[in-house]
Specification:
The radius of gyration is 33 Å and the shape is elongated. By secondary structure, the chain is an alpha+beta fold.
Length: 420
Amino acid sequence: MKTHILTLLCIFIGTFSTFAESEKDSVKVHFHVSKTNIDRDFYGNGATLDSIFSKLIADSISSPTHRLIGVKVTGAASPEGSVDFNKYLSEKRAKAIFNEFRSRGLLEDSLAVFTYIGRDWNGLKSEVEADGNVPYQRDVELLLERITGPNPPSHPLTALKALHHGEPYRYLHTYLFPELRASRLTVEYERLFPDIKIPDIQLDAPEISSYIITDDILPLPYNCLGEVKECKPFYMGIKTNMLYDALLLPNIGAEFYVGKNISLTADWMYGWWDRDRSHYYWRAYGGNIGARWWFGKKAHEKPLTGHHLGLFAGVVTYDFELGKGGIMGGIPRGTLWDRCNFISGIEYGYSLPVARRLNIDFSLAFGYMAGKYLKYEPKYGFYIWQSTHHLRWLGPTKAEISLVWLIGCDNYNRTKGGKR
């Protein structure tokens, strides 16, 4: 009889002594670079999630000894890439983790508190401090202290890349950045009964842990207070060279950003004006394809902005005659290659933001132009061939002041206030 009374007394006291006791635990889930979907085969994410799901169901959802009181979801990314894109990744990854639990009926929206870190500089700082193989480790630590301090440099990623000619950055990108590409989900619960063991009575309640799933992607900044667009980041420009437009040569071009500061370009012009009675001809058509490498602070902040160097090649044909003698590029009535002159070269330029979705691109190219051209005179209603010449030109081959329309969900410029 005394034993039963003592047992009941212990249960009664233990119950009230633990109502205020809460516990939490966390687990980390990794993401591929620039991805927001959970890959169960990556970094053992599948096994990690399954263990959390089973523990929540067995020890918390169906257990009378535990009660969920909150869920904290933190999205983060590694420092590479633009600030806005990293913020976007941070938010999408955090929501991807939470949705894994919500879809199984384990968590409710009302319990969740989301935090979007963006570029996880503090996480990188901790990783560097724990890794003894980082090149120039002390210099890296000092720079990260500045970046995470009250007065960070205006372009922290650029500063990190420039440190010791990029040697520390290459190590960090290869070995430490993957650990930052994660998101954390922390489940906080309240234990209603203490762990008590009494002869013949088992009062132990398995302890549930809060779980954190981590998600990361380097480039992160996106305005987490703003609306997130449901689209994959994409950078493209549609442009027209206003110098050619002023010469009555309509033209259009396209540029696609393919990553790693590289873009591909293509453009075409076509103007075939004539006045037969007066023998006025102003004709030209042709196009170019090329590739550009973007560099400098602006280029690291957002693709298709700032300085660029490029290589290009193209074809052009023309027929200019203003009432007297005329010049025709290529040999008429031949193949396409016979009728054209060929151009190739290298260009330098700068793309200047002028509005939210508009840039003006200035560029000048030097290279080589080769082919044949004819000189003729219009007489008696005919065009009399005079001579054939070989063109071999080395020097300026293209000038550009282009109006560029930016296309893509993340492809827009900052305002003066720093917002997009």
